[in-house]
Write a structure and sequence with these properties.
By secondary structure, this protein is α/β, with parallel strands linked by helices. Among the domains are: about 1-90, Gyrase A, domain 2, CATH 3.30.1360; about 170-260, no CATH class; about 460-570, Isoleucyl-tRNA Synthetase, Domain 1. It is built from 21 helices and twelve strands. The chain has helices at about 1-20, 45-55, 60-70, 95-105, 140-155, 170-180, 185-190, 195-205, 210-220, 225-250, 270-280, 315-330, 345-360, 395-410, 420-440, 450-455, 460-480, 495-505, 505-515, 520-540, 550-570; strands at about 45, 75-80, 85-90, 120-125, 155-160, 280-285, 290-295, 305-310, 335-340, 365-370, 375, 445. A four-stranded parallel β-sheet has the order 5-4-9-10, with helices on both faces. A three-stranded antiparallel β-sheet has the order 1-3-2. Strand 2 (about 75-80) and strand 3 form a beta hairpin. Helix 1 (about 1-20) crosses helix 3 (about 60-70). Bound molecules: arginine. Arginine binds next to helix 12. It is found in: Cytoplasm. Keywords: Aminoacyl-tRNA synthetase, ATP-binding, Cytoplasm, Ligase, Nucleotide-binding, Protein biosynthesis. It catalyses: tRNA(Arg) + L-arginine + ATP = L-arginyl-tRNA(Arg) + AMP + diphosphate. Monomer. This is Arginine--tRNA ligase.
C-alpha cells in the first residue's frame, strides 16, 4: 500500500512539474510516515513543506495542488491537509478488505517478495572457540538469525557464515595443556571448556616451561605440524559441539555447514599481502606490513595503520577479513555482505570495507554493512556478570531462564500436565531471553533483567506467546464447526478497523526490518497487534455472535491475527505454543 501511494504521489508530482508548478529539474524525494495519532490518517507526508521553497509557493497552497493532482484511485478514501501543510491520507476500506483477503489466501501472507532476489551473505555469531560461549555472544547470534530469516522470507538467497576464531595464539596454551593431560582426563576436562581455559591459563602464567611449550606449539601448529593439528582439531571439534548445543537450544539456524573458520583462509593470506603490494598499498613500519589510508587518522591527525602482517611474519584479524570479504563476493556470489558484530569493531569494519574496495578485493556494486550492537548490561550498569563476578556461560544462562520460566508458569492455573508445563517453560524461558534482546534497539546497550523479560505484562515474549494461545483458543472452541472463509470482511466497529489497519502493515514492517537490520521494529509491531487484538476481542463478541456475517468476518480477522503472530514470531526465531 505504501508503494502504491508513493506511485500515486509520484504521478501527481510529475503532473505538477509538467504544469510548471514545481521546477522540472528539481529532484523530489517522497517521504511517507505512519502518523502516531489515528486522526491523522494512515499515512502522512511533508512533501508540500519540502517543495514550497523550490516551487516558490506557500506550503498549504502547494499541498492543495498536490492533492488535486493525485490521480483517480481506489486506494484512498480521504486526503486532508493539516497544520502548516502536511497531507494526511486515509486508506479506503475496500482496499483494506482486499489486502486482508489477499493475506488470508496466501501462505506467505502476501508480502512483497524481492523482484530481483539478491544473495545476502550474513556473518553472525562468529565466536572465538578458545572459550565457551558466554553472554557477550548472545546478541550477534539472536539478531543475526532474525534478520537472516526475514531476508529469506522476503525472497533473498541467504548464505550464513559463522566466522569462528580458531587460530589465535591462545591455542598454543590450550594445546600444551591438552598434551600435559593424559587422553582420558583431557576428554573429561574438555567437557567444561570454561574451566579448561582457566586451568590452561593458570599453568601458562605459573610455569615458564609450560609457557615456552605453548609458544613452541603455536609455531608448530601454524607451520602445519601433524601432531599439533591433531590436538587442535580435537579441541576445535569439542568447542564447536558446545556452540552447536547452544544454537540448537536457542533455535538459531546455524549448523556446522555454516562454519567458515578463520583458519579456512590461511592459504589465502600470503596472496592478500602480495595483492596489496601489487597495488602499491603496503608500507613497512617497524618491520610490520601496514596499509595507511587517507581516510583514517588518529586523534592527533597521525596516520592510522591497518596492520596486515606482523614483524615475525604472522597474519592478523584484518588480513583474514580481507580474504573473507573476497571469498564472500567472488565465491559465494554475495551482492550484500552483512556483519553482525559488536559495535566496538566499527572502525575495523569501516577500514576493511574501504580497503577492500580500494584494493579490488570486492568489485562493482556490492553493499557492505557492519551492523553493530550495544552491550548486555547488568542492573548495576556494568557489563552483565554472573553472581560470582565471572562471565556468564550461555548454557548456564539458558538453564536459569528455563527454571525461572517454570516458576512463572506455576503461578498460573493450568490444565497442562507437569511434563507439558516443563516443555512450555523451556520455550517461554528461551524465548524471553531472545525477545528481550530483539525488542531493544540494536544499537543501544540494554539491561538484562529477569523480572522485565519474564512477565506477562508489557512487550515481552510471555505476553506475545500468551496472546497467540488466546487467539488460538477461539479455534479450539470452534472445533470442527465450519465457518465461511469466503465471507465478506466487515469493519464497522472501530476496534475491527484498528486491528485491520495493523494487520495490513506486516509487509511494510518486514521491509523495514531488512533495510535497517533492526528486528525491534517487528517486535513493536507484534506487540501493538496483540494489543489491538485484545481490545477487539473484549469489545466484539465472536463465537456467541448471532449475526452470521459478523461472526464469519470476526473469525477471519482472528485467523489472520493468529497467522501473522505465528509468522512474525517465527521470523524472530520464536516458536509459538498452542496452549500454555
Ligand atoms: N571472532 C570475532 C570476535 O569474537 C568476531 C568475528 C566477526 N566476523 C568477522 N568477519 N570479523 O570478536
Amino acid at each position: 500500500m505504501k508503494e502504491q501511494l508513493e506511485q500515486l504521489l509520484a504521478e501527481a508530482i510529475g503532473q505538477l512539474k509538467a504544469q510548471g508548478t514545481i521546477p522540472a529539474d528539481h529532484s523530489v524525494n517522497i517521504q511517507l510516515d505512519r502518523p502516531r495519532d489515528k486522526s491523522h490518517g494512515d499515512f502522512a507526508t511533508n512533501l508540500a513543506l519540502m517543495l514550497a521553497k523550490p516551487a516558490k509557493s506557500n506550503p498549504r497552497q502547494l499541498a492543495e495542488a498536490i492533492v488535486a493532482a493525485v490521480p483517480e484511485n481506489s486506494l484512498l478514501s480521504k486526503m486532508d491537509i493539516a497544520g502548516p501543510g502536511f497531507i494526511n491520507f486515509t486508506i479506503s476500506q475496500d482496499q483494506l478488505k482486499d489486502q486482508l483477503t489477499a493475506m488470508l489466501n496466501s501462505d506467505s501472507l502476501n508480502v512483497d517478495v524481492a523482484k530481483e532476489s539478491k544473495t545476502i551473505v550474513i556473518d553472525y555469531s562468529s565466536p572465538n572457540l578458545a572459550k565457551e560461549m558466554h553472554v557477550g555472544h548472545l546478541r550477534s547470534a539472536i539478531i543475526g538469525d532474525a534478520v537472516s530469516r526475514v531476508c529469506e522470507f522476503l525472497g533473498h538467497k541467504v548464505v550464513r557464515q559463522n566466522h569462528v576464531g580458531d587460530w589465535g595464539t591462545q591455542f598454543g596454551m590450550l594445546l600444551a595443556y591438552m598434551e600435559a593431560l593424559d587422553n582420558q582426563s583431557a576428554e573429561y576436562e574438555l567437557s567444561n571448556l570454561e574451566t579448561f581455559y582457566k586451568a590452561a591459563k593458570q599453568r601458562f602464567d605459573d610455569s615458564e616451561e609450560f609457557a615456552d611449550r605453548a609458544r613452541q606449539l603455536v609455531v608448530k601448529l601454524q607451520s602445519g605440524d601433524e601432531y599439533c593439528l591433531k590436538l587442535w582439531n580435537q579441541f576445535i571439534d569439542v568447542s564447536l559441539s558446545h556452540c552447536q548445543e547452544v544454537y540448537d537450544r536457542l533455535g538459531v539456524k546455524l549448523t556446522r555447514a555454516d562454519v567458515m573458520a578463520e583458519s579456512a583462509y590461511n592459504d589465502k593470506l600470503p596472496g592478500v599481502i602480495e595483492h596489496l603490494r601489487g597495488k602499491g598499498l603496503l608500507t613497512e613500519d617497524q618491520g610490520a606490513q601496514c596499509v595507511f589510508l587517507e581516510e583514517y587518522k588518529g586523534k592527533e591527525g597521525e596516520p592510522l595503520p591497518i596492520i596486515v602482517q606482523k614483524k615475525g611474519g604472522g597474519y592478523l584479524y584484518a588480513t583474514t577479513d580481507l580474504a573473507a570479504i573476497e571469498y564472500r563476493q567472488k565465491q559465494l556470489g554475495g551482492d550484500h555482505l552483512m556483519y553482525f558484530v559488536d559495535a566496538r569493531q566499527a572502525l575495523h569494519f569501516d577500514q576493511i570495507f574501504t580497503l577492500a574496495r580500494k584494493a579490488g578485493f570486492v568489485e562493482g556494486e556490492i553493499q557492505l554493512d557492519h551492523y553493530g550492537f550495544g552491550t548486555v548490561m547488568g542492573k548495576d550498569g556494568k557489563p552483565y556478570k554472573s553472581r560470582d563476578g565471572g562471565v556468564t556461560k550461555l548454557a548456564d544462562l539458558l538453564d536459569e531462564a528455563e527454571r525461572r520460566a517454570l516458576e512463572l508458569l506455576q503461578q498460573k492455573t493450568t490444565d497442562l500436565t507437569e511434563e507439558q508445563q516443563k516443555r512450555v517453560a523451556e520455550v517461554v524461558g528461551i524465548s524471553s531471553v531472545k525477545y528481550a534482546d530483539l525488542s531493544k534497539n540494536r544499537t543501544s546497550d540494554y539491561i538484562f533483567d529477569w523480572n522485565h523479560m519474564l512477565t506477562f505484562e508489557g512487550n515481552t515474549a510471555p505476553y506475545l506467546l500468551y496472546a497467540y494461545t488466546r487467539v488460538n483458543s477461539i479455534f479450539y472452541r470452534l472445533g470442527d464447526t465450519a465457518f465461511d472463509r469466503d465471507a465478506d470482511i466487515i469493519l464497522n466497529d472501530e476496534r475491527e478497523l484498528a486491528l485491520a489497519n495493523q494487520l495490513v502493515r506486516f509487509n511494510e514492517v518486514l521491509h523495514q526490518v531488512q533495510d535497517k537490520a533492526m528486528p525491534h521494529f517487528l517486535c513493536g509491531y507484534l506487540f501493538d497487534l496483540a494489543g489491538r487484538f485484545s481490545s477487539f476481542y473484549e469489545a466484539c463478541p465472536i463465537l456467541n455472535q448471532e449475526d452470521e456475517a459478523l461472526r464469519n468476518s470476526r473469525l477471519k480477522l482472528s485467523m489472520l491475527t493468529a497467522n501473522v503472530l505465528k509468522q512474525g514470531l517465527d521470523l524472530l526465531g520464536i516458536p509459538t505454543l498452542e496452549k500454555m
